[in-house]
What does this fold into?
Amino acid sequence: MKHTHKTCGSPEHLLHRRLFLQGTMAASAASVASFNGLFSVPALADETKRQGKKCILLWLCGAPSQFETWDPKPGTPFSGPFGAIPTNLPGVQISSLMPKCAGIMDKLAVIRSMSTEPGEHFQGIDVLTRGDKPRQPFIRPILGSVVAEQLGHLDSPVPQFILLDPCPEGNEFKGFKAGNWAGWLGAQYGPVRAGGEYSIPNLNKLDTISDIDHQDREALRSFFSKKYENDRRSQAAGSLNAAFDRVKGLMSCAPLFDLNSLPETDRQRYGAGAFAQHALQARHLIENGSTFVMVANGMPWDNHVFQHEMHQMLVPELDNVLYQLVTDLEDRGMLEDTLVIAMGEFGRSPWLNEARGRDHYPKAWSMAMAGGGIRGGVVHGATDPLGHEVAEDAVDNRQLFATIFAALGIDPHEEYDLPDLPTFLRVEDGVAPIQQLLV
Amino acid sequence: MFLPCRYFIGTFLTASVLMMHASRAAEPSEGSGDLFPVAKINDFVSQAWEERGVQPAARCDDRQFVRRVYLDLAGRVPTIEEADAFANDPQTDKRAALVDRLLASEDYPQHFADLFDALLMGRTNEGKYKQRANSGWRKYLEDVFRNNRPWDEVAAEVLLARPEDKAKRGSVWFLYERNDQHQAIAEAVAPAFFGIRIECAQCHDHMVVNEIEQAHYWGLVAFFNRSKNAKTKEGLRVAESAIGGFSDFANLEGDSTPNLLTFLGASTVDEPRPAGDAKQEDSDDLYVATSAEPANRIPKFSRRQRFVEDVLRDHPLLARSMVNRLWAIMLGRGIVHPFDEMDSVHPPSHPELLDWLAAEFAESNYDIRSLVRSLALSDAYQLDSRQPVGVDDPASFAWYLERRLTGEQLARSIQLIAEGKFTNDAELIKQFRQQISDVLPDETVVGVDDTLFLTNGPGLDHYLRSSRDKAGLLAELNGIESHRQRAERLFQSVFLRAPDVDETEAVVDYLNARNDDLPAALQQVLWSMINSAEFQFNH
It folds into this structure.
């Protein structure tokens, strides 16, 4: 089926009145964005149901330990120095490193029975951000691209999918980031990336050019370039023009990327680190029209060495950030429509290696969600007393993604179909969402 | 025809791929047309059109051809004069003559050195680019293309990294820049010289590509893991030890395997392994000759040398991967796509053509220039770039696939238009190669970061502004009589064609509105054209 869209995505033609180009600007020119997105347009009823749903993904790259976060095992040989503390859910305990989240467990949904396949970062990141392992011949879009395409507004000046990651360099995550994010949806659904400066390079107009020249020369450029694109039905030119079309909108929201514009008290509440500041910025962007913000911080969680010390540094920050984010969204009346997800690509081993680190462990691990169609106060699934195996209600990546899509009002089972090619589904094999987690 | 017995045939390599040619041309060729008969390339491609019921695009006209071939072979657009001279040349074989002239020009080694630096080494920061120049690597690459050196010799020099004369000192840099990171070396060697990616086989046999095993990954690492960077009196060297480098690798199930000297498509190189934890003693008699400089000692059993002689030499993928990459450079995508994933998951679109080209390439003494020449003169290369209606598959090569200009191509072409000449180490080149890093991307995707750079980056603006003062295009335009003629001149310079009525009108209207500051207005018009798809793409 061919995808059509309510908005054709064509830009308002920025023409100074002195220019008489309107006559030559084919008003009926083909849409600038080449929509090779392929899911059908949702029915109107669906549209209203999920209006305004948004998502923040706190991507804990490198993979945090479930034992020092959501699934502590006090008194076991490898439990480490941190105890477990009670929460505001009777009978539920989490790591003593997370006292703030312990006070809002009634708003969180924790899955303690994640069980996935890949045990290496690159493949793990791939499966847990796209929802499934690679399958030829298409590249599955990343969660943010799907949500931006389904729920976002392509003609909004505010980027619909933003990746905040201060560490462009460095590790398996870097390699992953260099890949194709939007997959079969097409590049216009890829993220806008803002890095260590908390902003986007070249976002501000040069002083050497006036506003009017800035507009006029782009109008001219667009005229020449779209003529070429339309004459040839050129997808390559379409990609260039779509990217130029986004410049003005992005420039207009430059202030959104200025952290200094946010209240100092907020900045202090979240904390000084890049991860915390980016989480605050994510809230700010969502409040101002973004649909999906992915907050990453390089790959700090991969603690094969001295994992207790590392987690002692990292978990309290996560605890605070998650607490601030969930309570802020609730105070603003946005929690119901904003899904917050906190997870990495797998868990850590229930035993310590010789360097007192925990190694990769995809077999049994934990993740957390809140808001946006997810039921609060739920702890789903369990592991055995030592955390070696899932003891009940194992959840794999497909069930997780089906649940996330359902919570956001996106049909998990929609098909992607092209003649003579295998059929792809948003979630393969008709895997169902976990009803217990849905509002 | 003979098959060196050290190859066992993986299922993905058809027997014909492994047809080895023992005989070598005695003299390196200067690039002759009969090595890769153009008619034969055309037959393979047109036969596939027929079989697939594809109606290819028409042949491109001279104006399209001249811009296209300058960009692809010389890394820049032609000047108006060059384009006119070609268009007005009455000779029937002028396309072949132009291809020959470009391949003999200094632009060709510069452009191909740009491409291959990015493909073999990856993009990097300006500090590293300086090191690539200082180490002689850049010059070495230029020499490869300028002197049309056989690719198998180049591969062997780069991987052995023992330059015998000063002129080749840069050959060590491929290994040296990777700074004793032996896994990074292996992960770079595989796509650079074999056209495959092995990163996925680090922890387990490749999950999708059956023939790529974890043993190949760690085997390739082992060939290089006795190597160590050294600064010697003779210059930079990659020293090699005669001992060490034995370990076991574990798969996800925890089974461990010794890292034997083995790689895809070649048999394992024998090497005695010390028992268990036995300590090896290093001593002079393990080396060919003692040298005052330990870094220059050559082990009697050199793993790098074994790799070059027992694995690399005549390896079927060495010719096959280079042929596929050159095809991708000239035709916009590989016969196997992506061009550096030549494995069983990515079958070639034209298997017989690829087999034949690879065999010819090995036979021709790995003659790069002759192959590039034949590709440039093939029918598929000379098709119009408009996608014909009803033809969807780019792998049919039924139209010339548009491609985005690389950072260097853009910066050179902009300089040439604005100043009438260009310098390769201009600031503009540095700015553009830092921002626009794609070389042979799998698909054309322009990011908003690039368009922000072109819109608000100080580099391009500053450069165009400064060309107002020079005897460059903007100054010249200022001196022209009418807006209409200015529009005409701009279109000839930037797009190598006359403007149509609409386009002339748009420019004239704009300039009329900006008579208050004509130099600034002309600069903005130039900006708008340089950033239009017609200039940003090769078509």
Observations:
- Chain A has two domains: 43-199+263-437, 205-257.
- The first strand of chain A starts at residue 54 and ends at 59.
- The CA atoms of residues 19 and 69 of chain A lie 62 Å apart.
